[in-house]
Each structure stands twice: as structure tokens, then as C-alpha cells.
């Protein structure tokens, strides 16, 4: 991430003229960051469940990840309300589909998380945010192809590591308030 002063950060987060944002208190940013930590823990759990061949744990970890993404999607900072609603819709539908059609749930959840990662990269230049969307597409292909679990577990571990990098980068920034 490039170094930004507090003033540059505030200027960067200020919407351009004509775009009004709802208030974004620092507490909401804390919730967003906590949701991302929970996402990383869920991805680690999914990796472990895949590596130990625990299908029931994989099922519940997908629910954990989906719930974490709902909270993150509801609290992340983005100027354009259309983007907020696209991400929210994707992660909510991913959660709804999780028990009914897990593959479809993964597709929507991974898409929503990829948009969040790309937005983080656009704003704060995190290297992981450039990789996460493409990695998520690759992971989706692996899920469709029914790759064997040890390899899938390693793929989930890679996604967890990418998100951890992004979360650690975000933790170095001050809490946001708009």
C-alpha cells in the first residue's frame, strides 16, 4: 500500500460532488474489520475441513463464511449505492443458497467477496486485492471440477492467506469515519 497521510486519506474517502453517502461512523468500520477477521477464520476452517475430509464441517464453515460476508457486505464503505446493493445482494443470496445448493452459494459469496477485495485495492492499493478476484474465479472452477479435497483444502488455505494479507493491511489504517 502506498503511504497516505491522514489528510490524503480523508480526501481520498470523500465522495466526489453529486454523490451523497449515508453516515459511516468509526464503529461501522470496526464491525467491517471484525467481519473480515471472521471471514479469514472461516476460510481457514474451510481449508482444514477440506484437508481432513469433514463434509459436515465444510458445510458449516460455508455458512460461517456466508454470514461473515453478509456483515462485511452490509458495513463496507463504498460511494456508489448501486455497488453496495450489488455486493449485499450477492452475499445474501449466497447465504440463502448455502443449504439448498452449496455450489451456487459459493459462486455468489465468492463474487461478492471479490468485489469487496477489488474495492479495497482500488482505494488503498493492497496487492492481495488484485489477486483475490482472479483467485476466487480459479477456486470456483476447482469447485465446479470437483477437485479432490486435499488440493481444494490447499486452495482454500491460499484464499485465507490472501484475505489475511488484506485484513492486516487494513488494520494498519486508521478507523474510517465519513
TrEMBL record:
Q: Does the keyword Transmembrane apply?
A: yes
The domain of life for this entry's organism is Bacteria
Residues that span the membrane, as ranges: 31-53, 59-80, 92-118, 124-145, 152-171
Q: Which UniProt keywords apply?
A: Membrane, Transmembrane, Transmembrane helix
Q: What is this protein called?
A: DUF308 domain-containing protein
Instruction: Identify the species of origin.
Output: Sulfobacillus thermosulfidooxidans
Amino acid at each position: 500500500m502506498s503511504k497516505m497521510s491522514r489528510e490524503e486519506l480523508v480526501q481520498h474517502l470523500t465522495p466526489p460532488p453529486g454523490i451523497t453517502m449515508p453516515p459511516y461512523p468509526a464503529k461501522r468500520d470496526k464491525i467491517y474489520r471484525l467481519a473480515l477477521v471472521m471471514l479469514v477464520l472461516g476460510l481457514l476452517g474451510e481449508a482444514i475441513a477440506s484437508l481432513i475430509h469433514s463434509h459436515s464441517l465444510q458445510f458449516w464453515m460455508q455458512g460461517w463464511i456466508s454470514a461473515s460476508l453478509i456483515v462485511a457486505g452490509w458495513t463496507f464503505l463504498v460511494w456508489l449505492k448501486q455497488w453496495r446493493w450489488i455486493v449485499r445482494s450477492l452475499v445474501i443470496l449466497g447465504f440463502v443458497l448455502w443449504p439448498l445448493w452449496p455450489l451456487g452459494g459459493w459462486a455468489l459469496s465468492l463474487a461478492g467477496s471479490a468485489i469487496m477485495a477489488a474495492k479495497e485495492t482500488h482505494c488503498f492499493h493492497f496487492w492481495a486485492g488484485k489477486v483475490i478476484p482472479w483467485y476466487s474465479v480459479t477456486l470456483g472452477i476447482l469447485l465446479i471440477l470437483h477437485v479432490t479435497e486435499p488440493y481444494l483444502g490447499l486452495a482454500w488455505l491460499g484464499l485465507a492467506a490472501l484475505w489475511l494479507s488484506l485484513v492486516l493491511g487494513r488494520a494498519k489504517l486508521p478507523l474510517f469515519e465519513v
